[in-house]
Specification:
The protein is of the alpha/beta class. The protein is 31% helix and 19% strand.
Length: 227
């Protein structure tokens, strides 16, 4: 079984964005711990399958972060299911998961799935607007969410998502100080080795995404955070 507890660095690829074969090869052979496929807009079964098949040419683990039921296809090493806990819409807590289990539960291998306690903190991001997330949180809120995720929900992962902008290190630290067993994953705005190192000091795993498509050289440098 593939364990997210081993992650330190992950590259996230958006199936709705184009990436050349040469750039994809450099990403997949960079030494990153995993390739995550996921996005908010225009994620379809067709473009997820196409990107997965290209990544599959390389030995790096390939995981799907599920954003809609239609794009959840077999063939990945692991599946991540975001439960957006600061969303005001129950669909993004567990509603889509419920529908998925109703449709596909009879053929799901639950060992391949990990639910993430997801906190969205950039109010301008597409994911915040889609999910109706309450982003005006403080450090006490983050600490409480961390306690909730680890001690009450018993989830393996807490994901702090700033989606396109670099986050507040103190907010991430407030969550990390509460977690003993749950993996703290951070994503958002990491576009340099310096930012990667700064956020890796307070998070267990960093996810690097957007910079892949605008400055591949800087994206590849972020892998150096791995021990």
């Amino acid at each position: 079984m593939y364990e997210i507890q081993d992650w330190q660095h992950v590259f996230k690829l958006d199936p709705a964005k184009e990436i050349s074969d040469d750039d994809l090869e450099r990403i997949c052979e960079s030494g990153t711990d995993a390739i995550m496929i996921g996005g908010t807009d225009n994620v379809t079964m067709e473009n997820v399958l196409e990107l997965m098949s290209r990544v599959r040419r390389f030995p790096v683990p390939c995981v799907l972060e599920i954003s809609n039921i239609d794009s959840a296809i077999p063939g990945f090493d692991h599946y991540l299911i975001p439960s957006v806990l600061n969303s005001n819409d129950v669909r993004f807590h567990n509603g889509m998961l419920l529908e998925a289990i109703k449709q596909m539960g009879h053929m799901m291998d639950y060992d391949l799935f990990t639910m993430e306690g997801y906190i969205v903190l950039n109010p301008e991001s597409k994911v915040a607007q889609l999910t109706g997330s309450k982003t005006q949180l403080d450090e006490d809120d983050m600490a409480a969410y961390a306690d909730m995720i680890e001690h009450l929900y018993g989830l393996k992962a807490m994901y702090i998502e700033y989606s396109g902008t670099y986050g507040d290190v103190q907010m991430v630290r407030a969550a990390k100080q509460k977690l003993k067993h749950t993996r703290l994953i951070y994503g958002g705005g990491i576009d340099s080795l310096e930012k990667a190192r700064e956020m890796f000091e307070v998070a267990d795993t960093i996810v690097v995404g957007n910079i892949i498509y605008t400055d591949l050289k800087s994206a590849l440098q972020t892998v150096k955070v791995r021990g």
